[in-house]
Amino acid sequence: PLPPPPPPPLTAQANLKKGLAALPKPLPPKKRLELLHGPSDDFADPAKNPFFDPALGHESASQRNRLAKSLRFNLKGKFIVQADAIRQAAKMDDLKKRIAQSTKKAGLEEQLDVSDKAYKRDLPPDIEWWDTQLTTNHTYDDLDYGLAKIHSSDSAITIYVQHPIPIPPVHSGKQIPPRALMLTQREQKKLRRQSRAENFKNISDQRRLGLLPPEKPKVKPSNFMRVLTQEAIKDPTLVEAQMKRDIAERAAKHIQDNQQRKLTPQARREKIAQQLQLDAAKGIRSCAFKIKYLSHGQHKFKVDKTALQLGLTGLVILNPKFNLVVVEAGAKAIKTFKKLMLTRIDWTNTCRTTSIRTNNTLEEGESHEQQDLSANTCDLIWEGELKDRGFKTWRFKSVVSDSGASEALERGNAGHLWLAATKFKDANDYD
Questions:
Q1: Are residues 106 and 422 in contact, defined by beta-carbon separation less than 8 angstroms?
Q2: Residue 73: is it exposed, middle or buried by C-beta count within 10 angstroms (0-12/13-18/19+)?
Q3: Whether pTM exceeds 0.70
Q4: Residues sharing a CB contact under 8 Å with residue 283, sequence separation 6 or more, in sequence order
Q5: CA triplet 153, 157, 158: central angle to 5 degrees?
Q6: Which residues pair with residue 384 across a beta bridge?
Q7: pLDDT tens digits for 244-283?
Q8: Do residues 381 and 288 lie in contact, with contact meaning Cβ atoms separated by under 8 Å?
Q9: Per-residue pLDDT tens for 80-105?
Q10: 416-423 and 402-410 helices cross at what angle (nearest 10)?
């Protein structure tokens, strides 16, 4: 038998059918949501629909005529200016980020203004306030149109000149005494000898004329035999007793004269207060000290007591980070206080600060453990002259935050000192 015939060759139409069979079947159509109740007539009317926007277009909306746009060329350098503005804004953002990071490390985020107002000045106004009275429409264009109020009846410029009341100067009528001649120590001694010799000569002349009684001889154990020759030979015991009484009288008179010249405690306090007032009248000086630790009772007592004795005004800020002492007074008082803070007080003294109680017991809250003051320092961070005193009293104030310290100092116009103290670094901070 013969073999079966070969299958007929595939045609293009057969290949097309085979490709259509391999395609995925289409998905059934989705069912659309139908509303059982259609919208109301008011909602369908665009004029009554509150949510209709005519700018979006509608069958009932009138078609707007679209104008043909002409070909426009950009000016030279337009996009360069825009790119420069973008780069400048990026630099400003980078600068603000770096400043914010540095202030965050220092703990002063709330005190620095890193906004654009701190770096960019405001644009000038359209018209300055002092020129508004000279223009009609409050614009400088009035000067071009001749509408300036210069020669009009309602102008702020008149023919009259206001002469202020003359005020006499502060130092008028006060005669400044000439400065005394400065003498050397040798010249001062010579002048004192000459004045004493002249006074002694005047008293001697008055005694020769009988105007003053003769002076009693100053008898001493070393010269009574030479001064009282006859009396000493007759009765030496009586002369010696008289000599001792005279010595006692002269000593008592010397002590009495000193007590009379001595000031009473009240007069001494008044004299010291007057000297402090005269010192402050010459000019107010101020200085600020940064102290790392001020927990030592003796240190705090010395600072407080000396400030009260010198009549200082100011504030002591007690903060966990550091302590700040701000004082105001005359030049002499400030010099004495600086010597106390920078020289006299040993800030590294770690002696026992707790007081001895009855039966050597400690009160509640006290302990024998002492704070290590070996790294304690006191630095002068600022010194200068002031017009007037900023603080009225002298006191201590405990503050926890930086904003509270700045606010307390700002009442005495010294808020900048806390920022200066925060940025100040001594030699130990660089190690």
A1: yes
A2: exposed
A3: no
A4: 330, 331, 385
A5: 70
A6: 286
A7: 898 999 999 999 999 999 999 999 999 999 999 999 999 9
A8: yes
A9: 889 999 999 999 999 988 888 877 66
A10: 140
Pull the structure tokens for residue 63: 């078609």
The whole-angstrom separation of Cα 303 and Cα 378 is 12
CA torsion sign for 290, 294, 299, 304 is positive
Lateral strand order in the sheet of 284-291: 378-386, 284-291, 323-329, 313-318, 394-398
Cβ-Cβ contacts under 8 Å for 418 (sequence gap 6 or more): 317, 324, 402, 405, 406, 409
Q: Where do we find the tokens 């290590």?
A: 372
Residue 296's CB is within 10 A of a number of other CB atoms, namely 21
Q: Which one is the CATH code of 284-348+373-423: 3.40.50.1370, 3.30.70.100, 3.90.1640.10, 3.90.1570.10? A: 3.30.70.100
CB 299 within 8 A of CB 258: no
Residue 66 above 70 pLDDT? no
- Rounded CA separation 369/295 (Å): 13
Could you tell me the two tokens for 298?
A: 């003796």
Asked if 371 contacts 319 with a C-beta cutoff of 8 angstroms, the reply is no
Other Cβ atoms closer than 10 A to 224: 20
Characterize the bridge pairing of strands 323-329 and 378-386: unpaired
User: Pick from 122, 146, 125, 124: which is nearest to 134 by CA?
Assistant: 146
Distance, CA of 313 to CA of 326 (rounded, Å): 8
User: CA 102, 108, 113, 119 torsion: positive or negative?
Assistant: negative
Q: Look at residue 228 and tell me whether its pLDDT is greater than 60.
A: yes
CB-CB contact of 294 with 324 (8 Å): no
How many CB atoms are closer than 10 A to CB 166?
A: 6
Structure tokens at 5: 């015939």
Which pair of tokens denotes residue 409? Answer: 């100092």
